[in-house]
């Protein structure tokens, strides 16, 4: 870990809980387009992935239909619901400590980049973050693309980067690029311990304090120890 100079975070489910705002906008688009009601489980599946992907999966839409409905979602989300996000406990302490210890800090999120940057400023994360990278409007960028851009623009390398995220897509992106990965289970992406292990994380964190302790005591905590403890 001595060569790590960059820590990049996913946003929803890792730094913030955006459930309230996302579900509010999903329900708005369902009502506006007279779509069939869906279960609570299906509603929750909209949290995390790009909105187009969730729409295609749940309603079996074409790419063109999904884009139209995604625009409706964004009508409500960008001006109102995006700001309903809640910061997880002790995130500010974690970011402050990492920043004071000289790490480059960034965000790589599936949230559209302009919305993400606006939210980062609204929440006060901009005083810690060197860069926020997000998705494009048409959802052409993958999580790997977004993470890779963030690393490049921060003038770091995958080998010198830790990516912190709450989903399998986060872990896969880190693995494919050769980053170290911290899997957080206090979010809503990972459904089981077995799923987190697929990403070969250096840490499985069930609270923000686990992440803070890892960077403070990084020579004393290992992936194997944490797996055995769980």
Task: Describe the secondary structure blueprint for this structure.
Layout: E1 6-9, E2 16-17, H1 19-32, H2 40-44, H3 51-59, H4 63-79, E3 86-87, H5 91-100, E4 104-112, H6 113-123, E5 131-135, H7 143-153, E6 161-165, H8 168-177, E7 180-184, H9 193-197, E8 203-205, H10 208-216, H11 223-229
Parallel strand pairs: 1-4, 1-6, 4-5, 6-7, 7-8
Antiparallel strand pairs: 2-3
Helix pairs in contact: 1-4, 3-4, 5-10, 7-8
CATH topology of the largest domain: Rossmann fold
Going across the biggest sheet, name each strand in turn. 5-4-1-6-7-8
Unreliable spans: 219-230
Mean of the pLDDT scores?
90
Tell me the total number of β-strands.
8
What is the number of helical segments per DSSP (H or I, 4+ residues)? 11
Give the SSE string: EEHHHHEHEHEHEHEHEHH
Overall morphology: globular
Would you summarize the structure shown here?
The protein is of the alpha/beta class.
Q: What attributes characterize this protein structure?
A:
single chain, 230 residues, alpha/beta, Rossmann fold, 2 domains, 8 strands, 15% strand, disordered C terminus
Can you describe this structure?
This protein has 230 residues and is of the alpha/beta class. The protein folds into 2 domains: 6-17 and 85-229, HAD superfamily/HAD-like (Rossmann fold, 3-Layer(aba) Sandwich), CATH 3.40.50; 19-83, Putative phosphatase, domain 2 (DNA polymerase, domain 1), CATH 1.10.150.240. Helix content is 47%, strand content 15%. It contains 11 helices and 8 strands. It has helices spanning 19-32, 40-44, 51-59, 63-79, 91-100, 113-123, 143-153, 168-177, 193-197, 208-216, 223-229; strands at residues 6-9, 16-17, 86-87, 104-112, 131-135, 161-165, 180-184, 203-205. The strands form 2 sheets. The chain has a 6-stranded parallel sheet with strand order 5-4-1-6-7-8, with helices on both faces. Helix 3 (51-59) packs across helix 4 (63-79). The chain is globular and about 55 Å long. Residues 219-230 have low confidence and may be disordered.
